[in-house]
Amino acid sequence: MIWLLERIFGRIPLGWLQLVNRKGRFVSAVIGVGFAVTLVLFQLGFIGALSGSVTLPYQSMRADIILSGPDARTLTDGTAIPRQRVYEALSVPNVDSASPIFIGTARHEVPNGRDASFRVFGVDPTTMADFWSPEIAAFAPVLEITRTGVIDRASRSIPAEFLHNIGVGHPKLLDLNGIATGLIGSFEIGAGFDADGYIFVSLRTFFQIFPEQSNATPAHVFVRIEEGADVTTVAAQIAQQFDPKETLTRTLEAAIEDEVRVQTVEAPIGIIFGFGALMGVFVGSVIVYQVLSTEVTDHIKEYATLKAVGYRNRFFSGVILEQAAILGLAGFVPGALLANMLYGMISGATGLPMVMDRDRLAFVLFGTLLACGLSGLMAARRLSSAQPAELY
Amino acid sequence: MGQAIESDGLNYAFGKGDARAQVLFDINLRIEPGEVVVLKGASGSGKTTLLTILACLRAMQGGKAHVLGYDLSDIDDAARIEVRRRLGFIFQAHNLHDALTAMQNVRMGLELHGREAMRNWHDPVLHLLKVLGLDDRATYKPRNLSGGQKQRVAIARALIASPELVFADEPTAALDAESSRRVIEVLQRLGRERGTTSVIVTHDQSVINMASRVLTLSHGCIVSDISQTVPSAEGHLKGTAA
User: Fold this and answer.
1) Deepest in the core among A6, A52, A206, B21, taking most CB within 10 A?
2) Nearest CA in chain A to B92
3) How far is B201 from chain A (nearest CA, A)?
């Protein structure tokens, strides 16, 4: 290790040797930085899972344009819009089809006493093929049967054996808002933070589960454009049809961007996770600063001696930055491994898409080295108190 | 060859206003290359202050001083570092890096002189440690060395780059008589063979006896300046780098 560092720095690796000379302090510092890295990765993992989970249902959508209430920022908020938007959209050139989408959250009491909540999409089976993935659209004919639905097999709170052998001939009954619904098939989307899973039903079944909702005001209207038409142009043409104070017209991509932004940056849950990540950065920086400034204080006379013989300030900054980088790297590795382990545990327990990706690792590594470096430079300022004249 | 050290009317005071206390008065000094000069005097006589000014560790206030040709009354930071790199410092406290071995500590005195000085650094470092009786302690860290051994490592660090001028403050305070004699012999040999000048603050009579010149300070003034014949040391100091 010393040989390698000598080759890298072109000098005695003083920073490394000083760090490992006090093993107890070094191990404590590495544990501290590792903990901070785990905390940051953990929070970023949640933000990633949040961002990933809110986009999951969009991945099954085949709509090109979404019409929503003017205050809609996500799939589930915003004022419902008049159903006549379907027909108004269909009057725009290059629009191939349009269909209303109703969304509600249904509760189901599971045997262990805990309530599960499902996001229920009320869709028109006759147009499902235009707006949903083939896996979901394949159930369109059987959804015509009243009080039937298809369920997300990645749902939380639903045991795997419940979904075993599920099919048209073997419907499984699920109580949704007190309405027994026969589940006759499954698809996969995945659980989110605010719902345990997704269920698709026909419009007729939807209004039995949610009698308080009006069939005249869907949550959104999905629009599909003709092959070869430009989605931005058509979206602009549709938008011209409506008063923006009454109807919001967005492409599917724009709706996804809004959803991610709102959930991860503006919604309380995203802010909490973001704040948690910042706390990790702060904790790690404080630990590194404390360790390095103690190192500087402990060796102030030795540094003053080197100053006396002609070492320049950049040498001392280099030694401190060397220590900062070593602490950052040494803390990052165990911190990242622990975070990866926790991702697996949480993903298994909650069904949330907690996945460690290389970009996040690289970002956190860069952030760790940057935070350690800045802490190191702050600690290095104490070196100005190393006065060689005081040595005599 | 010019003077190693030259000062005219050197004055220095600590504090300001009513708290101002002058510690050096009109110091006029000429020290030739190769001299081993002892500065002695009672505590508070100003010898350490004079040493730190001449060693470029303290800014000048009044008068003139030249060290190795540099005018200390008009010197910028870059030139100050340049001068310091040509000097050797031996402090009363060893100030060794506790994480480095004796050999690595000595090497620190060489590294700042660049890659050229570092080429084949191993042999000169080991040789100097051997001269100072520490070759069997080269791989020891300071915590495993006695006080005298640590001080000798610090001396080796000061001498490894073959300084033109060595400033030492009580360098033998932690050493036994034999080690003290060895250290002073090394300084004598450096003076004789390479023209290295040594300025030593000490109360140690054995060191004073071996110096070529003894300056006595009292209340900030040089009150005596005596040259003396020095017993010749045998052997040669070889192999120090640069």
Assistant:
1) A206
2) A392
3) 10
At A213, the amino acid letter reads Q
Residues 6 or more apart in contact with residue A206 via CB below 8 angstroms: A102, A104, A120, A121, A122, A213
pLDDT at A388 over 80: no
Tell me the ipTM for this assembly. 0.84
Cβ contact A302–B158 (<8 Å)? no
Helix residue ranges, H only, chain A: 2-9, 14-21, 23-59, 85-90, 128-131, 134-137, 140-143, 160-163, 203-209, 231-241, 252-261, 268-298, 300-308, 313-350, 358-380
Do the Cβ atoms of A232 and A239 come closer than 8 Å? no
At residue B208's C-alpha, the angle toward residues B157 and B193, to 5°, is 50
Maximum CA extent, chain A: 96
CA distance A44 to B223: 74
Q: Identify the sign of the CA torsion A125, A130, A131, A137.
A: positive
Nearest CA to A388 out of B109, B24, B59, B172 is that of B59
Contact B53, B230 (CB under 8 A): no
Among B58, B111, B112, beta carbon nearest to A389: B58
SS3 A287: helix
Average pLDDT taken over every residue of chain A: 90
A to B CB pairs, distance under 8 Å: 73
pLDDT at A170 over 90: no
Under the banding of pLDDT at 50, 70 and 90, the label for residue A191 is: confident
Q: Do B109 and A315 touch (CB under 8 A)?
A: no
In the stretch 178-237 of chain B, residues with CB closer than 8 A to chain A read 201
A310–B108: do the CB atoms touch at under 8 Å? Answer: no
- For residue A141 the two structure tokens come to 């004919």
